[in-house]
Amino acid sequence: MRLLPESLRLLFFFLFVMGVAPAPALTAGCPYRCVCDEQLVVQCAGQDLTRFPNDLPLATRQLIISNNLIGDLPALQLNYLSDLVYLDCSNNSLTEISESTFGNLRKLAYLDLSFNTLLQIEDRTFGPLASLVMLRLTDNPSLGEIHPDAFSENLALQVLDVSRNNLTSLNISSLIALPALRSLGLSGNPWRCDCDTEDLCLWVQIEGYKFQASVNEEDAASQDFSPPPELAYLQSPESEELVASSNNGSDSAVSATVKA
Ligand SMILES: *[C@@H]1O[C@H](CO)[C@@H](O)[C@H](O)[C@H]1NC(C)=O
Ligand SMILES: *[C@@H]1O[C@H](CO)[C@@H](O)[C@H](O)[C@H]1NC(C)=O
Ligand SMILES: *[C@@H]1O[C@H](CO)[C@@H](O)[C@H](O)[C@H]1NC(C)=O
Ligand SMILES: *[C@@H]1O[C@H](CO)[C@@H](O)[C@H](O)[C@H]1NC(C)=O
């Protein structure tokens, strides 16, 4: 049977409306091995997943894919989730993230990339994340480089933890200019301090012995995070973490205090 162009258009329209078309925008199920609830939380932790889950509900607000073997965060699939507030990717096999990875996640407030195998963080990787409040980037044993401007656009960032990586230096000139930053976790990195002019080294020299303190995992894990409007409950970081106070972003006048 030969369809007229009008009928074809109608057919496509119905396919589209009925959700029969395989467009990701219309999938409404729950991914294989994941549990989805009415609060738009998708829980896929510890399922031996080797790939980012398919067919995520578009309205997902919290996505937990921790404790899997996922090696890649596909930008296209991830960025359909424009309402995502909370993303836990900890304890996977991620080796690479870039500016396009999080390109459309403007509501994301919490991001956990700890316990992965990231090698470096490039410029603007977190640039699109205008609402990011807490970023956990710990325990990536080969992470040796973070671009000076990697976080410079994250004006909402309050807590950044880069503990237990392989960092020898960190240019903090853009970090100390972040208006909301109140905690920076630095412990357990092989800091190289032959650089009197760098702010970070100033901190290390002032508070050097405290940098080697290992953060209590239990306490770190129990730092619950609630998405907005519960952001106010964001718990204080551990005592080993440095709190930076800057003299209006001036490089020369950095002071460091350690929370009691
Ligand atoms: C990572 O996930 C694996 C598999 O679920 C688990 O056995 C292991 O304890 C987890 N490691 C951490 C540090 O959470
Ligand atoms: C950490 O970095 C050093 C070079 O600074 C390198 O030799 C070493 O292999 C790195 N460690 C890991 C686990 O990648
Ligand atoms: C730190 O980064 C800023 C901005 O990219 C740059 O202007 C400055 O020279 C860097 N400082 C050092 C010590 O590398
Ligand atoms: C930063 O600059 C503003 C305006 O120039 C000033 O009101 C404020 O006191 C300064 N803050 C510090 C910590 O110096």
TrEMBL record:
Signal sequence bounds: 1-19
UniProt GO molecular function: potassium channel activator activity; transmembrane transporter binding; voltage-gated potassium channel activity
Subcellular location: Cell membrane
Disordered: annotated segments: 217-260
All residue ranges annotated as the LRRNT domain in the record: 29-62
SMART domains (alphabetical): LRR_TYP (SM00369), LRRNT (SM00013)
Highest taxon listed in the record's lineage: Eukaryota
GO cellular component, one term: voltage-gated potassium channel complex
Pfam families attached to this UniProt entry: LRR_1 (PF00560), LRR_8 (PF13855)
Stretches with biased composition (Polar residues): 244-260
Keywords: Cell membrane, Disulfide bond, Ion channel, Ion transport, Leucine-rich repeat, Membrane, Repeat, Signal, Transmembrane, Transmembrane helix, Transport
Membrane topology according to the record: Single-pass membrane protein
InterPro entries named among the record's database cross-references: KCNMA1_auxiliary, Leu-rich_rpt, Leu-rich_rpt_typical-subtyp, LRR_dom_sf, LRRNT
Protein name, entry field: Leucine-rich repeat-containing protein 52
Organism, as annotated: Austrofundulus limnaeus (Annual killifish)
